[in-house]
Design brief:
single chain, 114 residues, alpha+beta, Immunoglobulin-like, four-stranded antiparallel beta sheet, three-stranded mixed beta sheet, 7 strands, elongated
């Protein structure tokens, strides 16, 4: 029974490892992404969830600000996984300009009212 569980756990680890598309960079090789989510008039949008590389996320505060640290360098994707009621979900951004080690990238996301 223990052997079956061990084999199952090892299979899960192998599947997860092969599913990761980018290797984990060594320490010190990460970047930070921060920014704002606003509506078309520039008013901050709170409680929007910004997702980077489908695994790291941050929820905007009352001022529409978010910050995501320890983002692997290189090309990255970002999207909103949760948009407050009354707004259209914007298209995801795939393969944004590559992040450099230690970079602090600022992005602005503008939501349109429905």
């Amino acid at each position: 029974m223990k052997l079956v569980r061990l084999a199952f756990v090892m299979a899960l680890v192998a599947a997860f490892s092969s599913a990761c598309s980018q290797p984990i960079p060594p320490p010190g090789r990460y970047a930070t992404i921060s920014g704002t989510v606003t509506d078309e008039s520039g008013k901050p949008v709170a409680d929007a969830v910004v997702v980077v590389n489908a695994v790291q996320f941050s929820t905007t505060d009352a001022d529409g600000r978010f910050r995501i640290t320890n983002v692997p360098t290189g090309l990255f994707d970002y999207a909103l996984s949760q948009v407050p009621a009354g707004f259209a979900t914007p298209a995801a951004v795939d393969n944004a300009a590559a992040l450099q080690p230690g970079e602090q990238r600022t992005i602005a996301i503008v939501l349109k009212h429905i």
